[in-house]
Amino acid sequence: MTSQQSPSPAEAKSPRPPAPTTVIALDDDLLREIFLRLHSLPTLVRAALSCRTFFHAVRSSPAFRRSFREARPPPLLGLFFDPDGPSIPAFAPLRRRSDPDLAAVVRGADFFLTHLPDDDDDAAALPEWVIYDCRDGYILLEHGSLEQYAVYNPLTRALDLIPQPPDEIFDDQNGDASCLGCYILSSQEGGEPLRLVYTCHVESRARAAVFSSESREWQILPWSEPVTPLPEDEHWLKVGSMVNELVYWIHKNQAYILVLNTVTLQFSQMDVPPNLVDQDLMFKVGETKDGRPCIVCPIDFELHAWVWRAGQDGIETWIFDKKFPLETIVEVTEGTFEEHCELKVLAIIGGFVYFCTMDMLRDAIYPCWFLSLCMETGELGTLFRRRFDGHAYPYIMAWPPSLIDNKVNPQLEGA
């Protein structure tokens, strides 16, 4: 029988091999470097919610959120369609089988708007919710019979019901006042009270009222100074577009643009690019990737873009940026220019132009193609094909409120 040899003193005193390093053991900075390489916001959200360590690393750094937004713009989830007449807006999702995380977000959201209240006093009443604005993950809707607004987040199901502005907003006007629109004033970083700005106009002046969720009251501002030249028609402004903290309304004859600064709550006028003055063209104001105001106008089957920036004399003005020939549309859609008739710009958000063909001008039952264009690369993308049965609003996924820590230590602001 052989006896077992005892280990030598050197072997007995040798240290144990170090335990393998796991991902959870990494510090927050290294985790954020890894997370910056994830390909989309939905994937980041899934990773952040998988454990407390990941959750804290993502939530505690405003600098990381800024870097991720720059590298991975918030994704388009689909478009809301708001038909004319009493109805509930319909949602057309963007289907991307290559991104299961994005598909999971769409499946889990309440895009049927089931949390919106109904008019319980009239069982036969038709739904009357109309979309006014869609930004930063929220939808702003108005219900005429209930005389209230609803601000709703389909992803979190957060709902805030707000009364309409008091009739005093129409006092002291000359002529019949018309609503210009109502818009959500929000911050990407959250933590601020919800605010709305309601606007109306008369023959030559405009007015705003602001609602705050803190006071639960509307603050009515004075009427603006008359515009020049004086409009010839009482309906002298087109539907507005909000870009960052400014709302733009284009004059119906493209003579100028009326602008509301939602910080100072002051109205002003802005020139239109000379090429567009008095032209029967439909164009939109939006924003480039770096947040600069821009104008995109379809001319034939090209998109022409102007950007608001300083010229050679140092004065800011509309400067023609580039044009995007879109002959490839017929290859992508396997259609013809005659079938598509013309193009219509829906919105310009974060440097992406969302637009559609206008096949329904040839026949109302014909579906249209909805597409996107990256202004930086010129890349054309197809979204889907459906009937154009009302106003369309792109819905962009916002950074989830649960992943924003508004009580972060100021010393960590650059972390």
From TrEMBL:
<feature type="domain" description="F-box protein AT5G49610-like beta-propeller">
    <location>
        <begin position="131"/>
        <end position="401"/>
    </location>
</feature>
<dbReference type="InterPro" id="IPR056594">
    <property type="entry name" value="AT5G49610-like_b-prop"/>
</dbReference>
<dbReference type="Pfam" id="PF23635">
    <property type="entry name" value="Beta-prop_AT5G49610-like"/>
</dbReference>
<protein>
    <recommendedName>
        <fullName>F-box protein AT5G49610-like beta-propeller domain-containing protein</fullName>
    </recommendedName>
</protein>
<dbReference type="InterPro" id="IPR036047">
    <property type="entry name" value="F-box-like_dom_sf"/>
</dbReference>
<feature type="region of interest" description="Disordered">
    <location>
        <begin position="1"/>
        <end position="21"/>
    </location>
</feature>
